[in-house]
């Protein structure tokens, strides 16, 4: 029974098993990827609300656009690389039967995570340099939003790294499990999503 | 890897069998244990909030008779009472408590799809409660900013708790939101994906529809509170000016400049209004099942009820600014939000009609859960009708800062959900504990609570019409308030104390019955839904014994003509189906 039929039928008229014995989940993907999809929607809502606040606050007169340090380009490259390696790990993983470091997928997965750590370290250096230049969080609402948005983005990436480290632990210990394949796939999706958010933020922060 | 839904994994042992006392009762991943942990914590913290409300009422009814209630403490009590009741009691008990207990049982699964996340959800919730309550013990005490935490007042000098209480409140809220998200992902995924065979969406009991929609609302609305809390935290700790305007304190210019207090209000109420329905929708669902079961009649207009829940959920995101009429806004906005507010009354009224029509000519059993459910219809109609007054800008502006609003929101958002909670707690008590409660004690508890709450809130409407302002520590001498208003206030306080004391009956009942109550059989009410059909009562770990149930019919086959019993459980194929099935062979 299709979803449409299910929600439009008159349930009191039907007794018995619709379409045989199988349970009918609404979506055909795995539970984990559905949960991740919902989570990504929630994160999108969070960033959208920050953006609404950003645009409203921008109009209030005391906004002085922040000159972004050039190092952000380097950080962006690190995050982009991180995302690419995550994807390579997933693609590689399809073609091999086991997941360990020597087989390639594990190594790429590892490099992907390390580049994400490099991105966060890079962001920290940017914050540090801004504070040193007297462009701290209190100096202007544009600065405050820069610190706020980059920090919230970094926290989300840290959450991803927590999952990454758990998967890595299992790969390192050669615990063969189909769950690792799933973790890699979901990590890659999450990484692409955070890359997209970052690119959006970078454009916004550069031009306003 | 081939995907196997949890509902299909028919082995008798779920993946996380507990092995010791600790994994069974403390670090438990079983949804039933987590539900009881959530419920117990929520009720405990709710009692703290109840105590605070009595202290507030003592000050209003009998000013200056209790020495330690000074203005600062009064505002702290108001704030903590509101926040605890709305978020840490009602949200947590409906979704964390009933959501956890009922979702897997009513959907026919062994557990939530992510049991570990579910366990984390409870422990994060517990930490958020501990952080919140710890603010009573820091310098300056908890925040006294009002539950809305409006900037700039909430983080400015002069507001009680601005030293540390407000920071702990914000941290606690953030932790709560993380806990809620972990739980919410579980409820939604379990309901959508893990239902047992035959359990189509339209065969789900309305409790599950209420819990599902409320959870989705929560997942989208809590981010607004999260964003507001983080930005307010920045203003407080790092000295930014997101919400903080320039202010002069004791003749000196403060460090903040240019922020927008209205922005905070928009963010807060973008969460705050859906929050009303995060509490109300599970209540709507649970009360529908209680009414249908004890009226021995199918719920009237099941599909309408489902779509009404979904419509209310959608509309609840479009009405938030009706909480801000007095903050000032473009008149066209006021018109828009007044219109959406009145539109939301349509699906809500539809639900009320359907409950009444379910009762109509039903074979009513006026036992304790049913009394509470019917009581809910009364209080909800009263609270809802005053909501129609306040939804209109020109009526709201003069009434907004009076006791009329206090009466309205307590009736619709306080008393009504609490009556449903009691209905649900009594209704599912035999399943959770395996014992029956004392019916007489339950009925006495109902009448004391029901009449008592009317004695509290009905007079408050009149105080509001007189113009008695809310949030005041004491009234002082005014020309517009007659002396009799104070007498009414004293009476309200006495009624509040009476209702609070009457709750002892509830606790005596549930604790006494735990040991001495009559043993309950698996389905004492003759209910159709799956949770009453478990092989063991209370259900054991894994819920269903060796095989998951199969669902053959919708959730409301009560008093079906020609059937020997006045109910047919969802997992009973019935004679017609058997005939057909054998015919095919």
Entry summary:
By secondary structure, chain A is mainly alpha-helical.
Describe this structure in words.
The complex is a heterodimer of chains A (208) and B (585). With 208 residues, chain A is mainly α. Chain A has a single domain (31-207), classed as Four Helix Bundle (Hemerythrin (Met), subunit A). Chain A is 71% helix and 0% strand. Chain A contains 6 helices and no strands. Chain A has helices at 3-8, 31-58, 71-94, 105-132, 141-172, 178-207. In chain A, helix 3 packs antiparallel against helix 4. With 585 residues, chain B is mainly α. Chain B contains 15 helices and 2 strands. In chain B, strands 1-2 form a two-stranded antiparallel ribbon. In chain B, strand 1 (248-249) and strand 2 form a beta hairpin. The chains are: A mainly alpha (208), B mainly alpha (585).
Side by side, the strands of the main sheet of chain B go 1-2
User: CATH homologous superfamily name of chain A?
Assistant: Cytochrome c oxidase, subunit III, four-helix bundle
Q: What's the count of strands of chain B?
A: 2
- From the helix content, strand content and strand pairing of chain B, which structural class follows? mainly alpha
How large is the count of helical segments of chain B?
A: 15
Rg estimate of chain A, integer Å = 22 Å
Features:
heterodimer; A: 208 residues; mainly alpha; Four Helix Bundle (Hemerythrin (Met), subunit A); 6 helices; flat; B: 585 residues; two-stranded antiparallel ribbon; 15 helices; 2 strands
Write the layout of secondary structure elements.
The complex is a heterodimer of chains A (208) and B (585).
Chain A: H1 3-8, H2 31-58, H3 71-94, H4 105-132, H5 141-172, H6 178-207
Chain B: H1 21-26, H2 31-61, H3 71-107, H4 115-134, H5 165-193, H6 206-237, E1 248-249, E2 252-253, H7 261-295, H8 302-315, H9 331-359, H10 368-391, H11 393-399, H12 403-433, H13 439-466, H14 483-516, H15 574-584
Antiparallel strand pairs in B: 1-2
Helix pairs in contact in B: 2-3, 2-4, 2-14, 3-5, 3-6, 3-7, 3-12, 4-5, 5-6, 6-7, 6-8, 7-9, 7-10, 7-12, 8-9, 9-10, 10-12, 10-13, 12-13, 13-14
């Amino acid at each position: 029974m299709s979803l449409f039929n299910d929600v439009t039928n008159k349930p009191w008229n039907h007794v018995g098993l619709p379409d045989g014995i199988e349970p009918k989940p609404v979506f055909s993907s795995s539970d984990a990827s559905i949960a991740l999809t919902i989570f990504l929607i929630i994160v999108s809502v969070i960033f959208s609300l920050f953006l609404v606040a950003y645009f409203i606050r921008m109009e209030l007169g005391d906004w002085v656009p922040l000159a972004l340090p050039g190092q952000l380009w380097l950080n962006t490259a690190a995050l982009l690389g991180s995302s690419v390696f995550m994807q390579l790990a997933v693609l590689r993983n399809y073609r091999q039967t086991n997941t360990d470091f020597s087989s390639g997928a594990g190594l790429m997965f590892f490099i992907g995570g390390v580049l994400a750590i490099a991105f966060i370290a890079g962001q920290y250096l940017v914050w540090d340099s801004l504070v040193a230049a007297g462009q701290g969080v209190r100096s202007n609402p544009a600065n405050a939003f820069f610190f706020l948005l980059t920090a919230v983005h970094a926290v989300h990436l840290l959450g991803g790294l927590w999952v990454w480290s758990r998967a890595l632990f299992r790969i390192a210990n050669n615990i063969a499990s189909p769950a690792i394949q799933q973790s890699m796939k979901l990590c890659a999706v999450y990484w692409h999503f955070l890359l997209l958010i970052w690119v959006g933020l970078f454009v916004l922060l550069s031009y306003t | 890897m081939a995907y196997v839904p949890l509902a299909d994994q028919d082995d008798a042992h779920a993946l996380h069998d507990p092995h010791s006392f600790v994994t069974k009762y403390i670090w438990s991943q079983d949804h039933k244990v987590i539900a009881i942990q959530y419920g117990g914590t929520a009720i405990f913290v709710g009692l703290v909030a109840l105590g605070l409300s009595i202290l507030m009422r003592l000050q209003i009814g009998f000013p200056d008779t209790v020495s330690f209630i000074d203005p600062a403490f009064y505002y702290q009590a108001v704030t903590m009472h509101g926040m605890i009741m709305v978020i840490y009691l009602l949200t947590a008990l409906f979704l964390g408590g009933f959501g956890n207990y009922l979702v897997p049982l009513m959907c026919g699964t062994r557990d939530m799809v992510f049991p570990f996340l579910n366990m984390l959800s409870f422990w994060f919730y517990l930490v958020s409660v501990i952080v919140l309550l710890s603010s009573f013990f820091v310098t300056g005490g908890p925040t006294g900013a009002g539950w809305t935490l409006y900037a700039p007042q909430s983080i400015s000098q002069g507001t009680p708790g601005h030293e540390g209480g407000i920071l702990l409140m914000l941290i606690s809220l953030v932790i709560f939101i993380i806990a809620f998200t972990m739980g919410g992902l579980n409820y939604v995924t379990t309901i959508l994906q893990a239902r047992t065979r035959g359990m189509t969406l339209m065969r789900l009991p309305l409790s599950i529809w209420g819990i599902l929609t409320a959870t989705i609302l929560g997942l989208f609305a809590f981010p607004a509170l999260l964003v507001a809390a983080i930005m307010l935290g920045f203003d407080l700790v790092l000295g930014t000016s997101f919400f903080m305007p320039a202010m002069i304190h004791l003749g000196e210019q403060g460090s903040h400049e240019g922020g927008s207090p209205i922005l905070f209000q928009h963010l807060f109420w973008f969460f705050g209004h859906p929050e009303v329905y995060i509490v109300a929708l599970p209540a709507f669902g649970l009360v529908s099942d209680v009414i249908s079961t004890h009226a021995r009649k199918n719920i009237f207009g099941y599909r309408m009820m489902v779509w009404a829940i979904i419509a209310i959920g959608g509309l609840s995101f479009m009405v938030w600014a009706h909480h801000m009429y007095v903050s000032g806004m473009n008149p066209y906005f006021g018109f828009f939000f007044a219109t959406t507010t009145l539109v939301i009354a349509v699906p809500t009224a539809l639900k009320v009609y359907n409950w009444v029509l379910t009762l109509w000519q039903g074979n009513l059993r006026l036992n304790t859960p049913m009394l509470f459910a019917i009581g809910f219809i009364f209080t909800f109609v009263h609270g809802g009708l005053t909501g129609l007054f306040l939804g209109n800008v020109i009526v709201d502006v003069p009434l907004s800062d009076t006791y009329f609003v206090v009466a309205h929101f307590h009736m619709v958002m306080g008393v009504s959900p609490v009556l449903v909670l009691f209905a649900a707690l009594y209704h599912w008590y035999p399943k959770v504990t395996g014992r029956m409660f004392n019916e007489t004690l339950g009925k006495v508890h109902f009448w004391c609570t029901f009449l008592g709450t009317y004695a509290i809130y009905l007079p408050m409407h009149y105080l509001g019409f007189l113009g008695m302002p809310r949030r005041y520590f004491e009234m002082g001498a005014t020309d517009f308030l007659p002396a009799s208003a104070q007498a009414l206030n004293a009476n309200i306080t006495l009624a509040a104390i009476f209702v609070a004391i009457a709750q002892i009956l509830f606790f005596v009942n549930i604790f006494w019955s735990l040991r001495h109550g009559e043993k309950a059989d698996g389905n004492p009410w003759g209910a159709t839904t799956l949770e009453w059909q478990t092989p063991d009562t209370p259900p054991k770990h894994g819920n269903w014994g060796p095989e998951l149930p199969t669902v053959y019919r919708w959730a409301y086959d009560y008093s079906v003509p020609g059937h020997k019993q006045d109910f047919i459980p969802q997992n009973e194929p019935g004679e017609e189906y058997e005939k057909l099935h054998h015919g095919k062979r």
